[in-house]
Amino acid sequence: MKSHVIYFFLAITIGAGAVYFYKKKCSKCCMDSSSKNIEIKKISAQELKQEMQSNNNLVVLNVLAEEYYNDCKIPGSRNYDYAQLKENVSLLDKSKDYVVYCASKICPASHEAFKILHDMGFKVRAFEGGIKEWRDLGFATEGPCVKEYLK
Length: 151
Fold this sequence. Notes:
This protein is α/β, with parallel strands linked by helices. It contains 6 helices and 4 strands. Residues 5-13 and 15-35 have low confidence and may be disordered.
């Protein structure tokens, strides 16, 4: 009986430590304290395609590394690598409407780019499906589109 109680408390202690470590790690690498509870404003592929034809104020940003942008992109989109977005944000016009996209639904870069731009006062939405969904829907793309994640 004593050993069961010891194992129980040991399990609770280890579990609590893992949760604490996870939250600390996430707060340092992924979550900016000012944007933890921001609701991501989203746009679908169909809405984006339609808006690209009708909104002259729209700027579509691919936030992947240049290698991936050069491989496959939405026509007319610009590349602002997420890793350097904060440093290059001064090149963006706050009077424009922005849509950020990355590789696919499992890629977090568009969400993180959304948070950065939103926190800096930009009008921004995220296209979560990324270039993979765009291409899978048969919408026009530029580049060879041969990277593994697109298959």
